[in-house]
Amino acid sequence: xxxxxxxxxxxxxxxxxxxxxxxxxxxxxxGQTNKQLVLADSxxxxxxxxxxxxxxxxxxxxxxxxxxxxLKEVRSFVDIYNNLDGSxxxxxxxxxxDAYKKIEKLxxxxxxxxxxxxxxxxxxxxxxxxxxxxLNADIADINAVFSxxxxxxxVPDLVKLSKRxxxxxxxxxxxxxxxxxxxxAVLTExxxxxxxxxxxxxxxxxxRV
Length: 209
Description:
The protein is an all-alpha fold. The chain has helices at 9-16, 26-29, 34-52, 63-89, 94-109, 111-115, 131-136, 139-146, 155-169, 176-208; strands spanning 119-121, 127-129. A two-stranded antiparallel ribbon has the order 1-2.
């Protein structure tokens, strides 16, 4: 991981959600279909996890500065994970839910490792990050969780499972009501445009008379 390239929290979120930037925040998620959110969240989780597995913090005096930099990325990881937890929870697709159950099992098996670096797996399945505990965590424990050089890291498996959810999400169907609403919106726009053009035409005729 190139720690010289330092992004803000929102910078990491935008990069992870590059295919659907609006899905990164609560307001942007309003009005999006479950399919759109499952696809956006699973893709974002795969991207942020894939980036985190490159993490190889050193144990020298500069390590704490590196941890401060990584905190923004870890915060993004936690928020993206929670977004996916929510979108999958709202889905009624068996393939998506079955794929996510494997992620839940994976996270539970590393619950203690996560707690060692200030990340709590809550009873509702979501994650909670204690920033101060993360900053005070041992470098070795952080590497053990995220670095793909660590035999105990779960992140490479998380990347694969996130991609599996994304693949299953492609088969989700859009709600009929959403399709009807979209069609109605297009028809309304066309009608308003036609009425506007008629008004302009009438004005020109009146002007000539």
